[in-house]
Structure formats: C-alpha cells, structure tokens
Amino acid sequence: MSGKIKSADLAVGFSVMEIHNSVGESDRSVSVRIFSEDEQELSEAAIVLPLSITPAQLQILCNQLLDSSDDPIPITFRTRDGILIKDSLKSSIPQQKIDVEKSIELLYYPEAVFRVRPVTRCTSSLPGHGEPVISVQFSPNGRELASGSGDATVRFWDLNTETPLHTVKGHTNWVLCIAWSPDGKKLASACKNGHVCLSKIRFNKLLSLEFQHS
After folding, report:
1. Are residues 153 and 72 in the same domain?
2. Of 8-17, 103-112, 118-127, the least confident
3. What are the pLDDT digits (tens) for 65-105?
4. For a tag site, which of 22, 39, 100, 167 has the least CB within 10 Å?
C-alpha cells in the first residue's frame, strides 16, 4: 500500500489544494482519515479538508489514493456510525459530532460498475431473409424472435432450435417495424407503404392475418 500511496502523493496534493481553493480560506477545515470496509487506511496520515467538501470531491481524492484516476469508480462515503455523506461533511454530520481537534473517520464503499463490452464474434446466425433485416424483436417469453426485412416478409424463429417457424408474406414493401403484444399471441408489423399486418399466433402456429392501411 505504501508504494502505491507514494506514487499518488503528488496528484493527491494537487487535488487537496484545488479543493481548498474552490471553497475559499474562510471555510473551516478538519482532518479526515479514509478507511476501506476491511479497515485499510488509504493514506499514511490524516488529510486536512474543508468541511464543505462534497462527495464528488471526496470521490476524486479517493480514486487518486487508490491509483484509479484513469478509470475512476463511483464511491459512497459514510461515517463510522453510519451517516451517509450526501451534500458535504458539514451538512451531513451533526455539528456536535464535529471536533476540529480530532479526525473524522470515513469508510468508503465502491459501488458496482456495469460496463457494456463490445461483442467481438457472432455465436450463431439465422439465414432466411432475401434482403437486409430492418427490425427484430424478442417475444415476451423469450422463446421466439420476429424479424422484418427489406424482402417484405416477417419471419418467426424458434430460438431453442434456431429454426424458422412461420413466414408472413402479406407486405408489399420493406417491413420497418414490428411489435409483440404483451401476451405474445399477436405481432403487429408495418411496412414502408403504410400497411399494418396483425399476425395471430397460438402454440407456435400462425392462425390468421389481418391487414389495415394507414
């Protein structure tokens, strides 16, 4: 830990200076010690910070201490008795609990981070359309897929077997959009020339088609 802290000392020092400059000299300061949930202290000594410091500023400082400034993680802060730091130290902690001669001890809690990673390969494909696919939608139960294409057809697919179930050929132009009903028994599709097709499905069987013109 000590080696990592030393490498971040300069950046942390600049951050503390920027925090003090942003709030002005009139704001009261207090020493702060920041600990992880397993009681590992982030810095070798207490850090003097203004009472008006915000969670966002604490988060920047904490990420620098963790050497994760290039890929910062969201962090929340609480006092040892469970007080969540919301707007600032001053507004979150009762005044009677603030003693400028003692350090305020904060616990930091990294929040879960969800990142979308690019897909680098296709696991399977469903050949069948004669032109580019313009619209797709999964059925409410997740077992079927409907696709609309520039070949003026709507195709239904069984996702378990990855095979076609039905093909709707009533459209006369590109099928631009499709939508399942909440119960999964109907599928509405609309094509470029204004036709709307309502396909009724039951037990994976295409029962009937209804066409309307907008």
Report:
1. no
2. 8-17
3. 888 777 888 999 999 999 999 999 989 999 888 887 889 99
4. 39
C-alpha 128/C-alpha 125 separation (Å) is: 10
SS3 167: strand
What 8-state DSSP symbol labels residue 125?
Answer: -
Quick check: is 185 in a domain?
yes
- Whether the Cβ atoms of residue 209 and residue 170 lie closer than 8 Å to each other: yes
Structural domain that includes position 89: 12-107
Pair of tokens at residue 61: 């400082």
Round to whole Å and give the CA distance between 26 and 159.
66
Strands of the chain (E only): list them.
Answer: 29-35, 47-50, 75-79, 104-110, 133-138, 144-149, 154-158, 163-168, 175-180, 186-191, 195-202, 205-213
pLDDT bin (cut points 50, 70, 90) of residue 210 is low
pLDDT tens for each residue of 132-146: 999 999 999 888 999
